[in-house]
Amino acid sequence: MSHVAEQLPLDRVVIRFAGDSGDGMQLTGDRFTAETASFGNDIATLPNFPAEIRAPQGTLPGVSSFQLHFANFDIVTPGDVPDVLVAMNPAALKANLRDLPRGGVIIVDTADFTKRNLAKIGWAHNPLEDGSLSNYSVHALDLTGLATGAVSQFDLTRKDASRTKNMFALGLLSWLYSRPTEGTLSFLSEKFAKKPTIRDANIAAFKAGYAYGETTEAFEVRYHVAPAPMKKGRYRQISGNLATAYGLITGAQKAGLQLFLGSYPITPASDILHELSRRKDLGVMTFQAEDEIAGVGSAIGASFAGALGVTTTSGPGMALKGEAIGLAVMTELPLVIVNVQRSGPSTGMPTKTEQADLMQALYGRNGEAPVPVLAAKSAADCFDTAIEACRIAVTYRTPVIMLSDGYLANGAEPWRLPDLSAIPAIEPGFATAVNATDDAGKDAFHPYERDPETLARAWAVPGTPGLEHRIGGIEKAARTGNVSYDPDNHEYMTRTRQAKIDGIVRDIPDIAVEDPSGSARVLVLGWGSTFGPITAAARRVRLSGRAVATAHLRHLNPMPANLGEVLRAYDKVVVPEMNLGQLATILQARYLVEISSYSRVRGLPISLSELEVDLIAEIDALQEEN
């Protein structure tokens, strides 16, 4: 017989699902997110999983987690700390307990709390029995046993039966937070359509978890988070990698070019390759190369042939692609390089996020090899930033580096489907006729004749009659493109290539400052995924009665024309970054303005709560000085 739990309204909730890397926590979190998005809440997620393919079971390095922040208002981060921790084993509890505030809710599977498993993670006593969790609201349930019992009618091995515990937990949480269930039931039916027994068992476990919430007296309250107000339109849940893939497809189609991806799989960028490989229906051609160098080389070759060449990677792959990017600078061909940054150096922490490749993007090539650099600020913004990268690459005949990071790549948020017809066309402007005369006075094609406004060179598709030409990595003579070792020509071409990139500043918007009071003396300037923590922290600072201004950079090379003026308008400029101050160093050197670097390099997004406290201290200290 079911009991009637009181339904308590909430504005926001942060839930973290945590378990062994084989417990299906990413799937559980993703399904809870999908139902929450369909319900109409604003969402932000933070998947966090081990780099090892399969760490030893029940160990701390093997813990995988998925954090979801959902609310009835606009949110910009996945939350600093969870309100609810769902822990599927002792290791998951120990690895995440320090993040849970006092009074937080713990839903824990008791099945694996044996002496052996406790000893494996260094616990001499069972925290579920020794009172050490007295500061939390603990629901200790045998989720594995309950799930196994729910699927006993199916002919499953003990191991397969226990694997349904994540669906039991999902059902329970769906009841507890009043989530829809139809989408998950449809998902399970489709995912396991070819394995009817597994399908039916997972559905049974999910329904049993939901029913358990209705019938047990362990939960006296269930919660309801109302939908968030949003602009009218159609929405879908999207990750940064998926948005990047869609942006690249859109950019190529707006230019009327075939999209060619030459890439090598690397965490956390591989999902872009996976998605684009599925889009042959949209004319996308993908090539999974044998290494990073082959990937970028094939993309340059595709651009030479008249397609839009793209390559995707992370920091270690960028190091390998450096020489080839220089080749694209010299040949002045469109190329989009997507760097989904991760923690380094070397192999570093492959599944953790970081922003430490900015200097590499700006300067990590031999010779004077200027390249435009853009950075996306959110998962959904990866779509718009990818289109902008395509536009600049095609319009200015240059490689463009787009920076994302692991947090954006794997995190998800609602995305309002754009009106594709409203996105401006990109004109490739292929050369179709001769554009010069040779020394003998005959008509000729000079591949390095330039558009006087953009300084982009002429781009001719090989095979166009009369436009035969050669290009390569050796220095080019101005206009003709012939091999040249002339010192004055090298100086001229070097300065021209730089002037072409510098000139893009005319074609990008000024940086916009958000300062509601108009009286702020402190400016917080961000780039990339620091947008979320900065925005959220600034909201809290303003609620405290203090004034603070914020601004965000998408274009990192060239930077907006008014940036120097904006920096000089404030008494203090704070630049939060997930590195040791790379943008702060660049701004201080370029604009001769003192910059306060706020650095965090933990493999996690910057904490909005810590940033809030530190900004309040900065503002108050500045006030006391006067």
Question: In brief, what are we looking at here?
Answer:
36% of the residues lie in helices and 19% in strands. It is an alpha/beta fold and 626 residues long.
Structure description:
It comes from Tessaracoccus lapidicaptus. This is 2-oxoglutarate ferredoxin oxidoreductase subunit alpha. GO terms for molecular function: magnesium ion binding; oxidoreductase activity, acting on the aldehyde or oxo group of donors. The protein has 626 residues and is α/β, with parallel strands linked by helices. The chain folds into three domains: 220 residues, Pyruvate-ferredoxin oxidoreductase, PFOR, domain III (Pyruvate-ferredoxin Oxidoreductase, domain 3, 3-Layer(aba) Sandwich); 187 residues, Thiamin diphosphate (ThDP)-binding fold, Pyr/PP domains (Rossmann fold); 113 residues, Rossmann fold (3-Layer(aba) Sandwich), CATH 3.40.50. It is 36% helix and 19% strand. Strands 11-10-12-13-15-14-22 form a seven-stranded mixed sheet, with helices on both faces. A six-stranded mixed sheet has the order 3-4-2-5-6-7, with helices on both faces. α10 links the parallel β10 and β11. The longest helix is centred in the first third of the chain and has 20 residues. The radius of gyration is 27 Å and the shape is globular. The mean pLDDT is 96.
